[in-house]
Design goal:
about 130 residues, 5-stranded parallel β-sheet, two-stranded antiparallel ribbon, globular, 7 strands, alpha/beta
């Protein structure tokens, strides 16, 4: 191995904007900000998500951002600030860097991730598991 996951995260952190939990809370009710939960859906089912956040699984993020992709999601074409988060701010650092590299201008992630959010007793909403057909 020539580079570790920790090194990748550190390199991403040097290139992206990281906001504090307090800053994230200030953006929570801002219509120009979109919180994006990139955790696996099973994490959302177990723990819930930030109130009002959208889910974009990390494995699909690039395809959902790219307007040329058949998987593109319109929310990523909006002129808004995108605030990514995961459990511990590692995946979200990499996701934020990827979004930035793809040309998204106003992207950041939350220091401490969802773990810090829960510890602060910040607003969380439950996510119900969808029943398969």
């Amino acid at each position: 191995m020539t580079i570790s996951a920790a090194q990748l995260v550190a390199a991403a952190e040097a290139e992206i904007e990281t906001i504090t939990l307090e800053q994230a809370l200030e953006f929570l009710d801002d219509d120009q900000c979109v919180f994006i939960d990139i955790r696996d859906v099973r994490e959302l089912w177990r723990e819930g998500k930030i109130k009002g956040a959208s889910h974009a699984p990390r494995g699909m993020l690039e395809f959902w951002i790219d307007p040329e992709s058949p998987y593109h999601r319109e929310m990523f074409a909006e002129d808004k600030r995108f605030i990514f988060y995961c459990a511990s701010a590692w995946r979200s650092a990499l996701a934020t860097l990827t979004a930035q590299q793809m040309g998204m201008k106003s992207v950041c992630h939350i220091a401490g991730g969802f773990t810090a959010w829960k510890q602060a007793n910040a607003p969380i909403e439950a996510v119900e598991a969808k029943k398969s057909a």
